[in-house]
Amino acid sequence: MTTGNINVSVENIFPLIKKFLYSDHEIFLRELISNATDATLKLKHLTNIGEAKVDYGNPIIEVKIDKDNNRLHIIDQGIGMTADEVKKYINEVAFSGAEEFLEKYKDSAKDSGIIGHFGLGFYSAFMVADKVEIITKSFKGESAAHWSCDGSPQYNLEATDKTERGTEIILHINEDSKEFLEESKISELLNKYNKFNAIPIKFGTRTETLPKPEDAKEDDPAPTQKVDNIINNTDPAWTKQPADLNDEDYKSFYRELYPMQFEEPLFNIHLNVDYPFNLTGILYFPKLTNEVNLQKDRIQLYQNQVFVTDNVEGIVPEFLTMLKGVIDSPDIPLNVSRSYLQADGNVKKISSYITRKVADKLSSLFNSNREDFEQKWNDIKIVIEYGMLSEEKFFDKAQKFALYPTVDNTYFTFEELKEKVKDNQTDKDGNTVVLYAGNKDTQHSYIAEAKERGYEVLLLDSPIVSHLIQKLETSNEKITFARVDADSLDNLIKKDEEKISKLSDEEKEKLSTVLEEVVPKEKYTVKLEALDSAASPFVITQPEFMRRMKE
Ligand code: ADP
Ligand code: MG
């Protein structure tokens, strides 16, 4: 038996770890399962390249609660450790063995999916346990080792008689952390962090109903058997090739990801890149019918199939945070501040890659099935319009597929619209005037009059429409927008000056005395003429600039 001091420069690192390592104590389970997963994947890799001559089999990771003894066990069938390796990898705190492994097998292990790199992962166990034991047997066949430590820098290490390959971690859960002995709590954590873990995780057993045998009688009960309760899907859709997935696969993965989300997504974008950074994922455009879900079911960030966070601010451009789905990238630095994240070169590249992929997908949907795209427009426009305002590159691409619907549900691209109105809707300064309404009902009579004159009237009702208009005006020369109830309609050059009022001179005079009293002159213009066939005998308009000032 060996006793020794854990090699740290600080006198006692554990109080520090407990306090500062992670504000969230629950992540200890994620760290230990990540280590168990790494240990298993390392063994897989070594057997693949012929360096480990053992039967890899179908290894699983088991999580077990022993409530009577206040213990939590995490057991794997991975690579294991010799006593020397325990000394090296466990006792030298902040020495990341995962990094060393990857360094050594740099080329061959690049895609092995090994997770660890913080170096303090294992010690996060001391946030919830006042004693931790490791019982481990290396695939190399040396005798098993038993390490234990009660949270002081002193540890014990002795030989033990474990016969199966792999590692068992035993946590003696401390007084303040009893919740981690509750089945419901561990279930919740496994479901949160490890729902898509690459190695199967067993948590208890469940009863499975078997098919009835051929000769069973009508009311014989179906036979049952106890099977391992595996809590995870080890190959989620985003880890597969897009060519191997169909529409239904994407939809069912969406349901797997958001079991409480009943609305189907509109379409998906499969992300898959390995240079100059590694990133996979699937993003979904949701149907925006339910505002509440916007907040709740957010994009989830994973690293090697382990959940990290659903706060992707700084990684995904802000306008795309309204999307749903998964991003998995080992190249996003964790445990750093958001401002650091935004300055990180890789993260910047990732963000612009995602923007580009989204624009390309929208573009191809538009080109391949415009009718369908038009139908979805109302659900997707907010994201697209917001993107056009916030990302110049996205704006340039979106110019080709962003749609501008008229009050009669004709959808124009901006180019089409310009072409359509350029002859009929020009003002005295030679600008093309784009007319729009914000509300079909309240602006009904203005719309009617404009249509009567043969103008196209757009229906622009997003909350950010005034910003979008400004953007379009500044990036297109000789284009101005005017709302249908603005007086700029009068500046339009009329083709046929056929404006016959329905009112007699006498009626006009009476009416203007009345209107002068009720309509504030400095704000509105009253025009006692309208097209013969229009519904209203007069119109009240407001200068466009005054209206914009109010917004
Ligand atoms: P990291 O995972 O970032 O390397 P950790 O502190 O989580 O850092 O773990 C330190 C090292 O201890 C690992 O790299 C690995 O070599 C070893 N280790 C931890 N858990 C296991 C395990 N279950 N099986 C085998 N080795 C392990
Ligand atoms: Mg680790």
TrEMBL record:
The keyword Magnesium does not apply. PROSITE patterns: HSP90 (PS00298). InterPro entries: HATPase_C_sf, Heat_shock_protein_90_CS, HSP90_C, Hsp90_fam, Hsp90_N, Ribosomal_Su5_D2-typ_SF. Residues 208-237 are annotated as: Disordered. Keywords: ATP-binding, Chaperone, Nucleotide-binding. SUPFAM superfamilies: ATPase domain of HSP90 chaperone/DNA topoisomerase II/histidine kinase, HSP90 C-terminal domain, Ribosomal protein S5 domain 2-like. It holds the Pfam family HATPase_c_3. Residues 226-236 have a biased composition (Polar residues). The keyword ATP-binding applies. It comes from the Bacteria. NCBIfam families: PRK05218.1 (NF003555). Belongs to the heat shock protein 90 family. This is Molecular chaperone HtpG. It comes from Zhouia spongiae. The lineage of its organism: Bacteria, Pseudomonadati, Bacteroidota, Flavobacteriia, Flavobacteriales.
